[in-house]
Structure formats: C-alpha cells, structure tokens
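Problem statement: downstream parser choked on a complex file, so we are re-checking the raw output for the zinc ion run. The parser issue turned out to be on our end (a line-ending mismatch), but while we're here, posting the original submission so the record is complete.
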Amino acid sequence: MSDNVLKKDFNKKDVERLRNLVKGKSGERTSQGIGYTKKEEFHKEGDIWEADGRKWTIKDGIKQNITKLDKFKTAAVPLFCPTCNNIMNKQLDPHYFKAHGACLDCIKTKETKLKISGKLDEHAKDVHNKEIDKTIEEYTQFMNVKMNESNDGFVTEAGEVEKWKGGVNKERAEEALREGIEYLKSLKKE
Ligand SMILES: [Zn+2]
C-alpha cells in the first residue's frame, strides 16, 4: 500500500467514522457529516428547542427531553417528603405520596397514631360506660332494698328521701327508679 492510496482512502468520511467509533456511535451514518453541515446551535439554561422531533431544554445544566420532564411533572412526586423531609426513595413512596401527600413512613406513622388514639378513645368510652352501668346497678339495688325493707320512704335519684302516708308508694318509687336509670343511660357515650 503506497502513501498515495492511503491518502486517497483515508478521507474525511473515514475521519468522521473514526470519530464516531471513539464516541461510541459506530452504527451511525457518516455520509451526512456530524456537526459540520448542520448549523451549530448553542443553548443556555431554560432554552426550549426542537431536535430529532422532540422538544428539549437545559435544566440544571443538563440537556433534557421535555416530554420526560412533563411526565415527571404530571406525576408530581417531589424528591423529598414534605412532611419529614426525607428522600422518597422507597418503591411505594410515589404511590403513597399521590394518595396521601407524604411518604410511606409518614403515612404509616400517622395511621399508627390514629389507631392508638382511636383505641384510647374507645377505651375511655368503655370505662365511662362501664362506670355508668355500675352506677345503675348500684342505684337499682339500693332502691330495691329501700322499697322492700322500709315503709318510711324511698330515696329518689337525686338522693332525697320521699315519704308517703301509709308507706312507700311503690309505683311512684319505681317510676323514679326508671327515670333515674334513663337519666344515667343518657350519660353514656355512643
Ligand atoms: Zn415522610
């Protein structure tokens, strides 16, 4: 191979092919020339332009496809959880963020807190209602004992002793007892 043949075959096309090989673009056609026939365009941060049928911009100094950015925007999942400020890198974080506006951990913590406070409320209600049941039971027993053992009178729900001539008016006493129980029941929590 003479120097002449080498010069003839090793033309601009080959230079470009070599350049593309070095850049890892070996499959790319070289006949159009890369970056020579095309007017070079320079873009700065925030510019939007079209190339290869797609819209591009420069964000944080990096050329990015706008379609991708739009998709990211639609998903509207920030990098950091707005509640705990931790990075949302767990698989279910985007799902939880879209549904509840915070990361998986925050939602779990919130749910646990709600469960605990719900149980505490339930417990307080239980205690309250059981106390009323106990009061009703004691009141009823007390009244029944009073009505049966004495002719002197009976104790109303307000704690007053009522007397009737000729002994305890059992009907009146039972009515008072019923009213007392109704009142106590109305103090129960739903
Ligand atoms: Zn969080």
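For whoever reads this later: DSSP finds six helices and five strands in the chain.
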